Amino acid sequence: MVQTQQPKNLEEALKVIQQLTKMIEHQNQLIEQMNVALQLQQHRRFSKKNEAMNPDQLSLFEDESAKITVEDPSNDEVKEEPASRHPKRKKNMSVRKSWIAYRKRIANTILIIGCVLTVSSHWKTLVAKWSVVNP
């Protein structure tokens, strides 16, 4: 704030009043600009976030050429086509077996020692049954 001394004559008092009036008008303009900026920022931050449709876009739907007509084909024209996709194969949850054989030569005799492995894919277990097979 501008502090002024007591004016001595009337002309000086009028000049001081005019200066203060100009300052007040300038400050009021700044306040108004700040209020507008504040309202704009509040609108950007707190306004609804949904999309609004432009009236020009709405007029597209009023045009008769934009309307789609769907013709329902008669039953004679409709042919049932076989499914083009084969159904998926079911995953084989059965037990897998494999044979492991070892040959061992003992005293001029060949022994075949084998093992049947049974693997369950569901439980991830391994069962082995050993047997000796002589030729």
TrEMBL record:
<keyword id="KW-0175">Coiled coil</keyword>
<dbReference type="InterPro" id="IPR024463">
    <property type="entry name" value="Transposase_TnpC_homeodom"/>
</dbReference>
<protein>
    <submittedName>
        <fullName>Transposase</fullName>
    </submittedName>
</protein>
<feature type="coiled-coil region">
    <location>
        <begin position="10"/>
        <end position="37"/>
    </location>
</feature>
<keyword id="KW-0472">Membrane</keyword>
<feature type="domain" description="Transposase TnpC homeodomain">
    <location>
        <begin position="38"/>
        <end position="98"/>
    </location>
</feature>
<feature type="compositionally biased region" description="Basic residues">
    <location>
        <begin position="85"/>
        <end position="94"/>
    </location>
</feature>
<keyword id="KW-1133">Transmembrane helix</keyword>
<feature type="compositionally biased region" description="Basic and acidic residues">
    <location>
        <begin position="64"/>
        <end position="84"/>
    </location>
</feature>
<feature type="transmembrane region" description="Helical">
    <location>
        <begin position="106"/>
        <end position="123"/>
    </location>
</feature>
<dbReference type="Pfam" id="PF13007">
    <property type="entry name" value="LZ_Tnp_IS66"/>
</dbReference>
<keyword id="KW-0812">Transmembrane</keyword>
<feature type="region of interest" description="Disordered">
    <location>
        <begin position="48"/>
        <end position="94"/>
    </location>
</feature>
